[in-house]
Amino acid sequence: MNAYPGWQLPGLYAANSSSLERLLPLLTLLGAASALADEAGGEASLKLPDLSQVTFLGIDGHKLLLFGIVICIFGLGFGWRSIRG
User: Higher model confidence: residue 35 or residue 55?
Assistant: First the structure.
């Protein structure tokens, strides 16, 4: 017994949907997969900028990155201390 009379699932499960509507999710997935295959190359091919040449709000990019790592280490220590009691 259907709790919602007249309600149908959209897309692949709808009884009155056209064949194009049924194939649309599959075509979308295949299109996305082919687009990703063209851009594949892995992390080794990434080109990173020199952070010492960039400033953010007057702070050297390298120093800002190191400051963020220090904040992460403090957060790790706080979490460790919270778990241990």
Answer: 55
Q: What is the mean pLDDT of the chain?
A: 76
Give the 3-state secondary structure of residue 56. Answer: strand
The burial of 53, by beta-carbon neighbours within 10 Å (0-12 exposed, 13-18 middle, 19 or more buried), is given as exposed
- Three-state secondary structure call for residue 61: helix
Cα-to-chain-centroid distance, residue 1: 39
Phi and psi at 84, nearest 5°, equal: -75, -15
Q: Strand, helix or coil at 15?
A: coil
Q: Which domain holds residue 6?
A: 1-47
Cα–Cα distance between 47 and 43 in angstroms, integer?
9
Q: Please tell me whether residues 4 and 38 are part of one structural domain.
A: yes
Looking at residue 10, what is its pLDDT? 55
How many domains, the chain? 2
